[in-house]
Amino acid sequence: MEEKEVLKALAEAFPGGILETGDSFGCPVVRLRPEIIPAAAGFLKSAPWSFTMLLDETCVDYPDRRERFEMVYHLFSLSRNRRLRLKASLPGDNPEIGSLAGLWKNAAWLEREIFDMFGVWFSGHPDLRRLLMYEEFQGNPLRKDYPLRGRQPLFAKREGGR
Amino acid sequence: MTAVADRAFPENLLINMGPSHPAMHGTIRIMLELDGERVRDADVEVGFLHRGFEKTCENRTWFNLLIYTDRLNYASPLINNLGYAMAVEKLCGLEVPERAQWIRVLMSELSRISDHLTCLAAMAMETGAFTAFLYNMKAREFLWDVIEQTTGARMTTSYIRIGGVRADLDSGYEAAVRKALVETRRVLRDVRGLLDDNPIFLGRTRDVAVMSRDDAVSHGWTGPALRSTGIAYDVRRAHPYLTYERLHFDVPTGGRGDNYDRYAVRMAEMDQSLRIIEQCLIHLRRVKSEPTAAVLDPAEAIAAARTTPPEAPVRLSPNLAGAEKDVLPDIQTGDPRYAFPGKEAAYGTIEGLISHFQYFMKGHGFRPPAGEVYAAVEGGNGELGFYIISDGTDRPYRLHLRAPCLHVVSALAGLIKGGLLADIIPTFGSMNMIGGELDR
User: Fold this and answer.
1) Hey, which end of chain A has fewer CB within 10 Å, N or C?
2) Fold adopted by B54-289+368-397+429-439
3) Do A60 and B398 touch (CB under 8 A)?
């Protein structure tokens, strides 16, 4: 019941923003237009929905689809003990989406990881650089077209530094 | 060049802490800008233990990738096994027999205690309390004895399988658990006596690196770290799984969210885990499986199988003890699509051998239905979530781990800024950063 109210309120606040709704083993799933993700996340974070925690943020690569990348957000409301999954599809060329780093502090690292692994660009991110791989690494390892055993030579010695 | 070096005042000292630093266990690098002893700016660099866990999992079968989950949080590998197995079971709609569920709870709690002991041991050692480190390690040995007896391994157990557990508990497990309970309680009492009112320990931890509730939530903290700020969120309570609903335990919380609270919450949680283990023992006795007496030696079984498949079970090698055909229904799901076949059949009949190969070979094995699932368990560090997408083939299309550690460590730079250089060490120790889980 409560889930329906969340979706209804979301649809009212963002007319035309909801593309698809579903359910995954009891967890409601909402596919949104990518451009409204930061605003919708802010809306859901505030009362009365109070999804105060960004549980997880990740990306999935579907090379065969027209919209290749799918962002997946898991929100969690501590007060209501509910999870919610948001999704947004991004094109394969220059995938870009608004950053949630202003809303949740852990988003800064989670988005750096996605940028590192998938090459998705987060506009408005304060410090977008690789998280797990080194700076000179070429490519994005979790993209499906990156080979499983894709080895790269060790990078050239860094210049300068203090 | 790091961002800190770019921003730093020229008169301040830049220090590279790690990745090879004795206190940066788990390999992490902190770039520090120091004004005297004060940390003016810090940048935490992770990824030194990145080994492409998620990419590897996409290229392994559902069964084979289990061993990689052991290596995530190597202080509590059984909980990682459980998290993965439960996510796949949710996807397949599998029911796990009751005895297997109790075994899983028992193993989870043993792992949780050993996880907390490891964390606090390191934290205490780095603040100078080497005795507490040794005591904790001693207690952990007794817990690992129980785990080793049943699973055959101390750390990389791969014991909790999709649909159940690999083998039944060892026949002497109860005595070993009782011994571990007594020894762990004694160690906890001793460590409390050593640390709780110790002015040196209090000076290093009390009101050091205080995390506010709002910040903890905003950073996605879960587990003991979140509870130390006073929020009683525990996956075992909020989204009960296995048999946790039927168990009595409290969710200890702290009040200030400082290093000391993170220590105290872990200590209190171990008491609760010990309580859970005691209750598990009672329930496990109730759902006991009775092994049959008559068994054939392998040679006899092979000879007998030349004419007709033998009726009596085959005596298995000690490595496979506890996974006999008559035990399997108690510890493994009965669904033939997902349950692995009995070893007697694999060694005694050709049909059994074929089904064994079918189950374990690349390109065969089981195939969960297409779909996506998020399932979480309470790991040593907090909510350990697996987000899995299946496209109906023999391997996951995408497997993402919500590593509780990543969210906790993402707050490290903020916590140490403005503090003293020496405070970094207990702060980092209280976070229980585990490289395998953080870097994946």
Assistant:
1) N
2) Cytochrome-c3 Hydrogenase; chain B (1.10.645)
3) yes
